[in-house]
Amino acid sequence: MTLDTAGEALWVVGVVAWYIIRYPFERRARRVRVVRNDRSLPDTVGLALALFGLAIFPALYVFTGFPAAGDYPAGLSTIALGTAFFSCALWLFRSSHKALGRNWSISLEIREKHKLVCIGPYAVVRHPMYTSFLLMAVGQALLLSNWVVALAGLAGFAFLFFLRIGKEEHIMLESFGPQYRAYMERTKRIIPYLY
């Protein structure tokens, strides 16, 4: 097995693990009544672009080699670092879901008896699930030795983040008022102590 193939196999394992982590939370969330749904076209576009950049396009590359023009040789340290980033992404992704519990949703929704979650990774950043997507995009860029695929993952994350984050924080401010404003003052958005 070459390093390129090893990186691709690790990426596939990571994406499968991502889905295995999300599935039970998605099933449980369907059982909790939604009291406010602010899903919009930009929200849907952000989700679609993230799915394309972090799953569909890299899967196309892994299974077909397209676009080969962006290939570069994989290195052992790059694959190891990519594995570390992807592993951290999966850990944070699961921790975020677990902390949110019944409050989780894939889109901009407020659920019945929704509570402001400030525990686990939410004690450090307001949007750790986005942090996990950023770590996943960096892991993808390191595991898949192709510049085009690397940029697709980072662009997919950026579109999701910038199309949703403002509206998401607006909804939280409307729902939790001063409690959320105080939470904003003591935490950063996605990178602890920086942003």
Automatic annotation (TrEMBL):
Topology versus the membrane: Multi-pass membrane protein
GO molecular function: protein C-terminal S-isoprenylcysteine carboxyl O-methyltransferase activity
Subcellular location: Membrane
EC number: 2.1.1.100
Gene3D superfamilies from the UniProt entry: 1.20.120.1630
Superkingdom assignment: Bacteria
Pfam families the UniProt entry points to: ICMT
Biological-process GO terms, alphabetical: methylation
Alphabetized PANTHER family for the sequence: BLL3993 PROTEIN (PTHR43847:SF1)
Protein name: Protein-S-isoprenylcysteine O-methyltransferase
Organism of derivation: Chelativorans salis
Source lineage: Bacteria, Pseudomonadati, Pseudomonadota, Alphaproteobacteria, Hyphomicrobiales
